[in-house]
Amino acid sequence: MNAATPEAAIRVRGIRKSYKALEVLRGVDFEVERGRIFALLGSNGAGKTTVIRILSSLLKADGGSAAVNGFDVATQAAEVRQSISLTGQFAAVDEILSGRENLVLVAKLRHVKDPGAIADALLARFSLTEAGARKAATYSGGMRRRLDIAMSLIGSPDVIFLDEPTTGLDPEARIEVWETVKNLAAHGTTVLLTTQTLDEAEHLADRIAILHQGRIIVNGTLAELKALLPAAKVEYVEKQPTLEDVFLALVGDTGANQKDER
To answer: Using one digit for the tens of pLDDT, what is the confidence trace for 163-180?
Structure first.
């Protein structure tokens, strides 16, 4: 396929994926503009992780097409991998090493020049300089996640995928990660994050797409999504719908969902 248009860092068209008899994705379409934060919101089992795996060239789609940073994920997988970074649901740091040693190790593996300088710059950027010499095992959840994201930025990827980045974090750590994600976009990085946390999408995303039963059922800004429901009046005071109201109205009571496919 042709390269994506300059404003589209990610373009997905009709992506389908099944696991034996289970149809997980049934024709998914969306685009992400460069330098934006795009949230893919959905319940457990909605197919969010499958989308991320396809876009990062770790999984082959059964149908449809997708391009990341102008490269086709099916035919130009090597180029896709060079221009992206993927951070999974749990921080992938080596707890025996210090924070700085983790960064230096990744920098050496990616053959970047002056790994020590790269590590120091990232420690400063993510407010980890004072903790840089400590073993990662001593870090709080939020610090580990920030270190994990810092590691993923080595090599200056244009696009970063964050798969449920605040899973298992306490409220304070979640806020730390949210600030980190906002700073990524402020520096020009395109961010696609998956989440089932409604306030996370509400606080972070420029655009939000709700993935339900294998399809994108709505895609828009927070204001556009809220406009789908009429404002409720309580004691003559107009109450705007929350993202949670929109989500539940569109997908209904999902009940006991299966875990995200891995």
So the answer is: 988 887 788 878 888 888
